[in-house]
Amino acid sequence: MNQYYQTIISEKTLYIVPTPIGNYEDITKRALNTLEAVSLIAAEDTRNTKNLLKYFDINTNLCALHDHNEHKKTNKLIIKLQDGHSIALVSDAGTPLINDPGYYLVQRCYAVGIRVIPLPGACAAITALCASGISSNRFCYEGFLPVKTQLRKKKLLSLLEESRTIIFYESTHRLIESLKDIIEIMGHDRYIVLARELTKRWENIYGASAEKLLNWILEDDMRRRGEMVLIIQGNHKSSKNIIGVKALYTLALLQKELSLKTAITLVAKIYGIKKNILYQHTLDKIKDDK
Ligand code: SAM
């Protein structure tokens, strides 16, 4: 048999093992063989992983490695690895380290010369991206948006001119607020896909302009339930790029507080843009809005 079809477990090795994001059938054969063969599984939540192991009839010992004990626990795991143990790292769902614990452990492994072997597997961000219908050649993964409104807006502002597809994880409680902020900063017409409950019974993938998506969600409470990923189309508006979307956003904000003349003078100074270009843009926008 070709050795590449076998799961060979080495001593003194950390295995990074993805687990399903919903459907248990999505775990790979190699992941199951690894979980069965290692001497210890470090899990984000042992109760959660116990259920998975029980389903597949695996009895390997478990220990907890979560955000609150990561540093302390890592030191203990490193000693075990140095003693010759093989350890599998799993999170509650999907790929460990992707918005899940494990970064410090992997870093420490390299620092002390422990081998790290990653297994490929489920990841909500990639699963959602592939089904979004939005360009997947170039994308950036941004994890969760900040909880505080001001920080969230600042983050969105920093991504305003991003031309790659943007991936966010989102929670049911903050979806509406986040979408309102996306509309305010990136515009009502930015195309977004909401991918919910992937691989599960109520899987749903819906794409529309930001404003239409928000209205669609507001029509039915169920549409913001469950686990979700937002895929946002990159900024490809070349006409706006001439001035710069950040400059336009600043102009819109200043216009609310100051006279048009002062707002344009300030934006022209801050961003080094000619005043007449900003005047022309404002006139065009007034025409468009009519
Ligand atoms: N490590 C995981 C991965 O590889 O995708 C992500 C962990 S992060 C703490 C959990 C978030 O991932 C959820 O809040 C949700 O945004 C997203 N997520 C996880 N499972 C999902 C699913 N089945 N459908 C949609 N999004 C999911």
Summarize the structure in words.
The chain is built from twelve helices and ten strands. The chain is an alpha/beta fold and 290 residues long. The chain has three domains: 13-122, Tetrapyrrole methylase, N-terminal domain (Cobalt-precorrin-4 Transmethylase, domain 1, 3-Layer(aba) Sandwich); 125-232, Tetrapyrrole methylase, C-terminal domain (Methyltransferase, Cobalt-precorrin-4 Transmethylase, Domain 2), CATH 3.30.950; 239-289. A five-stranded parallel sheet has the order 3-2-4-1-5, with helices on both faces. Strands 6-7-10-8-9 form a five-stranded mixed sheet. It is elongated and about 70 Å long. The structure holds S-adenosylmethionine (SAM). S-adenosylmethionine binds at residues 21-22, 91, 93-95, 98-100, 123-125, 169-171, 195-200, 227-229.
